[in-house]
């Protein structure tokens, strides 16, 4: 058992299994009497979500990570000789490769039953971009022992924790810290690429924002149209109800006037009948004098 073998084993595990497995290997080293190895194993750091995803991509999908790193190496080889069109082509290729790998990382996480946040995916994207831009970061990424994500700002080497045996994986001919602000060809090219990336990202963000605004406006217009149709339908229903109510009111008024006339006529008839009854009683009384 040596440190490389233990590190390869541990950084291939899900993060929640890391600590238990590390403790187990540390105890084995102590039991074998190798205190130095036990201390080195104890010092191995559990990877965060970004590092775990990057490590698994490098281990399980190295054939897909390779083209991205090759693209970065080709860019460095052609430092200072690329035209604007070539830089734009490079930016497009880089964006496609990084996007594909980020998608692969998301699928990989899902396959392991893990939910990853947008922040984690942005960290993975930053790590992949760092691997493309910085040869030392590329070596760290390929080693699959990251404990945190990597970042590259265009000045100096990529930053982040490369995990155990950091020096042993920096095997490229561009050692860490070689980049300076004095203006090497690589640096100038990196700055141009970074500037082109920012322009593309800003343009894409503007397009996405405009698209989202247009979608929101279309949705609002559709909702307004639906609301207008609903209101128009309600107005039509109310207008029809008002017409029916107006007609019913007119009919009720006519019926009220008719029944009032009938009532008045009936009252007159009753009055006339009562008068006739009184007259008849008076005539009868006149015909039979002396009767009470």
Overview of this protein structure:
The structure is a single chain. The radius of gyration is 45 Å and the shape is elongated. Helix content is 76%, strand content 0%. The protein has helices at residues 3-10, 15-31, 35-42, 49-60, 62-77, 84-111, 118-133, 135-143, 166-169, 185-287. It is built from ten helices and no strands. Helix 4 (49-60) packs across helix 5 (62-77), helix 6 (84-111) packs across helix 7 and helix 6 (84-111) crosses helix 10. The protein is mainly alpha-helical and 292 residues long. The chain starts with a helix and ends in a 5-residue tail after the last helix. Mean pLDDT is 78; it is low at 165-188 and 200-208.
Low-confidence runs: 165-188, 200-208
* Quaternary organization: single chain
Please report the distance between the alpha carbons of the first and last residues.
Answer: 147 Å
What overall form do the CA principal axes indicate?
elongated
Query: What structural category do the secondary elements indicate?
Result: mainly alpha
Order of SSEs:
HHHHHHHHHH
Report the sheet with the most strands, covering strand number, pairing sense and barrel closure: none
Mean pLDDT: 78
Number of strands: 0
Helix content range: over 70%
Beta-strand fraction estimate: under 5%
